[in-house]
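ok so for the tutorial part 2 we go from a plain amino acid sequence to predicted C-alpha cells. step 1 is just haveing the sequence, like this:
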Amino acid sequence: MPPIKIDHLAVVVDDLPAALNFWQNALGLPLGGTERNDHEAVEIAFLNAGDSRIELLKPTTDDSGIAKYLAKRGAGMHHICFAVQDIEAALKHITAQGVELINETPRTREDGTRYAFVHPKSTGGVLVELYEVTEGLG
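step 2 — the prediction. this is what the C-alpha cells look like for a chain of 138 residues:
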C-alpha cells in the first residue's frame, strides 16, 4: 500500500515563537493552525508548504518523549509523515515485510486523524509516521 504523499516533516523546537519567526517570516510559510496534544505532551504549529506541511513540536512537559528527544539530541528534524488511505491496511502490509512498529494499533488525534509510528530500527534510522487521510481523495 503506497503512501499518497508526504503529509509533513516534523521539527522539534525549544522556542515555538522563535521557530515560527523563521518559518513564517524568513521563509514565508503561512501558518495553517496550532493545537495542543496532551496525549503526546506537545504544542504543535503546522505551516503550509505546498501540498505538504512543516510540523513544529514543542514539549509541554519535562518527561514527554519529545522533551527527552530535545534534551538528548537538541532541536531539529524529528520525523517524516506519510499520508495513507487505510492505516490498518498499511500497518498490516509493512509488518508483513518484517517492519517493527512503535504503535501496533493506530492512535487518534482530537480532530479524528489516525496515526502510527514505525520504529527507526526498520527504516535506516528515520522515525516514520503514517497518517490516515480520508478527505480530498478521488
